[in-house]
Design brief:
The chain has 562 residues and is α+β, with helices and mostly antiparallel strands. The chain is built from 17 helices and 13 strands. Strand 11 and strand 12 form a beta hairpin. Helix 6 packs across helix 7, helix 13 packs antiparallel against helix 14 and helix 13 runs antiparallel to helix 16.
Length: 562
C-alpha cells in the first residue's frame, strides 16, 4: 500500500488568476506531488488547492506554497465573504493510505514548526495535530478573524504554537493540522421541496434538529439550564447535512459532509438517507460525489452491496467500483469516471504497472522482443496470476451455483483470498523486470577510482540480492494459491474441476520458473550464507509444488472420470 497524504491549503486570494497560478506552479515544481484540484472563489476571495503525494514531498510543497503566498498576498488589503486570518488561512494534512492519523499529525507539526521558524508566520495547530483540546476546533481558533487577531494573539491563551507572538499585517497567521478525509456527498431526492430535503438532512446529521416543546414543528425550542438549545441527535455520527434545491438539476438534495469515513462510510450514509426519505414518502434517485474519494471507500461500498445480494466479493476492483456506482446512482447526474474521481487513480497508484497493463498480445510481443526483460521471472509471476485466477473463478462460480446459495459466504472468502494473491503476483510482473533493470544500472556505474569500484560493487550486490528475492516472492505467493485451488477442485462447482486442474499446472509452473530465476541470480552473490538460504528455500518450494500439483490433479481426475 503506497504512503499517501492529501493536503488542502486554502489561500486568501480567489480573484487574481496570476497570483493563484504562481502559487500552484510552486506546488507543481516539487517532484512527486500531484496537483489534483484548484478551486477559486470570487465572492469568498479564496482558493482551495488540493494536492497529494508521499508525506515528505507534500510537506515540502506545502511549505513552498505558504512561503509563496506570503510574498504575493497582502492581507491588509484582503476582503471576502469567507472567514479568514491569513494569506494561507488553513492547511490540513489528510492521511489517504499507508499513513496513520498520528503520523499525519506529526508531519503537520513539523510543517508548522518550519513555517513559524523560517517564515516568521504565527502558526496554530488544529484537529489531530493540536494537543490542547480547547484549541482543536478551527472555528474557535479563527474566531475574531484577521482584524481581531492583532489583539487576540497577545492573550496568553492564544500564544501561537509556533512563530512570533506578533501578528504580521501582511501575512496574518496560518492554521495547520491533520484531519480525516472529508467527502462531500449529495443525495438526490424525487422532490423539489427544500423543506422536505431539510427534514431528511436533520434526521441523519449528527447535530440533529432542535428539540421543541409540544408541537414538533411549531413548539417552543427547548433549552438547557444555561439557556442553550437542546437537540435531538440524528442517526449518523461524523455527518453534517443540509437540504437544498438545485435549479440546474430540478431536484432537491440532501447535501452531506462525511467527516470520518471510518465512522460513517459513504454506503452507510446513502442507505440511511434512503430509509429516512422513504419514511417521509420520498425516494432517493441517485447521488453526486463532489471532488475526490479514496479508493478504499469505493471498494468497501462495492463489497457492501454485493454482500446484500449474497454475491461473491472476490471480484476485481473495477467490478467493485462499478457495483458501488450503480448501487448509489453516482452516475445519475453526470458520468462517473473512476480515473478522475478516485484519488489513487488520479495519481496512478492502485493501477497496474506498464507490463501488467498490456494486452495479452502486447505482453507476448514484449517478451519475444530482443530485450532481455521481461524474462522468465515476469512470465512466472504472470503464469502464477493466471493459476490463482482460475481458482478464484471456480470460487465465484460456485458462490452463484443454483442450489448452493447458503454457501455463498464460504466461496466468497476463498475468492477474496485468491484475488489478493492475484493482485500481488500481477504487481510482481513489473517488479521482477524492474529488479533486472536495477542490476544492469548497477553494472553500468563508473569504476575509475577505488572509491567508485567499491560503490559499484556494493550496488551490484544489493541489486543482485533483490533480483534473487523478487522471484522467490513469486514462488511463495504461487505456493499460497495451491490450497485455494485444491479446495475448489474438491469442493467447488464440479463442472469447473478441470479449470482448477489447469490452475494447479499454472501454479507449479510459476513456482518452478521463479525458483529457476532465484537460483540463477544467487550465483552472483558474494554472501554465500544468504545465497545458500535462498537456494535451499527455492528447492523446498519446488519440491512442495510438485506434490501439491499431483494431489490436485488426482482430485480433478476423480471428478472428470466419474
Amino acid at each position: 500500500m503506497p504512503r499517501l497524504v492529501e493536503c488542502v491549503p486554502n489561500f486568501s486570494e480567489g480573484r487574481d488568476p496570476a497570483v493563484i497560478r504562481q502559487i500552484t506552479e510552486t506546488i507543481q515544481a516539487v517532484d512527486g506531488v500531484t496537483l489534483l484540484n484548484v478551486d477559486p472563489g470570487q465572492a469568498t476571495n479564496r482558493t482551495v488547492v488540493t494536492m497529494a503525494g508521499t508525506p515528505e514531498v507534500v510537506v515540502e510543497a506545502a511549505f513552498r506554497a505558504i512561503a509563496r503566498a506570503a510574498q504575493l498576498i497582502d492581507m491588509s488589503k484582503h476582503h471576502g465573504e469567507h472567514p479568514r486570518m491569513g494569506a494561507t488561512d488553513v492547511c490540513p494534512i489528510v492521511p489517504i493510505s499507508g499513513v496513520t492519523m498520528e503520523e499525519a499529525a506529526t508531519f503537520a507539526q513539523q510543517l508548522g514548526a518550519r513555517v513559524g521558524k523560517e517564515l516568521g508566520i504565527p502558526v496554530y495547530l488544529y484537529e489531530a495535530a493540536q494537543r490542547n483540546p480547547t484549541r482543536k476546533n478551527l472555528s474557535i481558533i479563527r474566531s475574531g478573524e484577521y482584524e481581531g487577531f492583532f489583539k487576540k494573539i497577545k492573550l496568553s491563551e492564544w500564544k501561537p504554537d509556533f512563530g512570533p507572538s506578533e501578528f504580521p499585517a501582511r501575512t496574518g497567521a496560518t492554521v495547520i493540522g491533520a484531519r480525516d478525509f472529508l467527502v462531500a456527498f449529495n443525495i438526490n431526492l424525487n422532490t423539489t421541496s427544500t423543506r422536505r430535503a431539510n427534514a431528511v438532512a436533520f434526521d441523519v446529521r449528527e447535530a440533529g434538529r432542535p428539540k421543541r416543546l409540544g408541537d414538533p414543528l411549531t413548539g417552543k425550542i427547548s433549552t438547557d439550564e444555561t439557556g442553550q438549545p437542546t437537540n435531538i441527535p440524528g442517526s449518523l455520527k461524523a455527518v453534517k447535512a443540509i437540504g437544498w434545491f438545485i435549479r440546474e438539476y430540478g431536484i432537491a438534495q440532501v447535501s452531506m459532509n462525511l467527516t470520518d469515513l471510518t465512522v460513517t462510510p459513504v454506503h452507510v450514509a446513502f442507505d440511511e438517507v434512503c430509509r429516512k426519505a422513504e419514511s417521509r414518502g420520498l425516494r432517493v434517485t441517485g447521488a453526486e460525489l463532489v471532488g475526490l474519494i479514496p479508493l478504499q471507500a469505493m471498494l468497501d461500498a462495492g463489497r457492501h452491496y454485493l454482500a446484500k445480494q449474497q454475491r461473491s466479493l472476490g471480484v476485481s476492483d473495477a467490478d467493485l467500483i462499478h457495483i458501488a456506482v450503480k448501487s448509489m446512482g453516482l452516475d445519475e447526474l453526470a458520468p462517473f469516471n473512476p480515473g478522475e474521481r478516485i484519488i489513487e487513480y488520479r495519481m496512478a497508484y492502485g493501477l497496474p504497472g506498464r507490463l501488467a497493463a498490456m494486452t495479452l498480445v502486447g505482453f507476448a510481443d514484449e517478451t519475444a522482443s530482443e530485450s532481455p526483460a521481461p524474462g522468465g521471472g515476469s512470465v512466472s509471476a504472470y503464469v502464477g496470476a493466471l493459476g490463482v485466477s482460475l481458482g478464484t473463478m471456480v470460487a465465484n462460480l460456485s458462490a452463484h451455483k443454483r442450489g448452493w446459495d447458503p454457501r455463498w459466504e464460504e466461496f466468497s472468502r476463498v475468492a477474496e483470498h485468491g484475488r489478493a494473491i492475484q493482485k500481488q503476483l500481477l504487481a510482481l510482473v513489473d517488479e521482477d523486470t524492474h529488479a533486472f533493470e536495477q542490476v544492469l544500472a548497477a553494472l553500468g556505474l563508473p569504476r575509475s577510482t577505488e572509491e567508485e569500484k567499491q560503490a559499484r560493487n556494493a550496488a551490484v550486490q544489493a541489486a543482485t540480492l533483490n533480483a534473487a528475492e523478487v522471484p522467490l516472492r513469486v514462488a511463495r505467493l504461487a505456493s499460497e494459491s495451491f490450497p485455494i485451488i485444491r479446495a475448489m477442485a474438491d469442493q467447488g462447482n464440479p463442472a469447473s474441476a478441470s479449470d482448477a486442474g489447469v490452475g494447479a499446472l499454472c501454479a507449479r509452473a510459476a513456482v518452478l520458473g521463479a525458483c529457476l530465476n532465484t537460483r540463477t541470480n544467487v550465483a552472483g552473490l558474494k554472501d554465500s550464507a544468504r545465497g545458500k538460504q535462498l537456494r535451499d528455500e527455492a528447492r523446498a518450494l519446488e519440491q512442495s509444488a510438485g506434490q501439491m500439483e499431483q494431489d490436485i490433479l488426482r482430485i480433478v481426475e476423480s471428478k472428470i472420470s466419474s
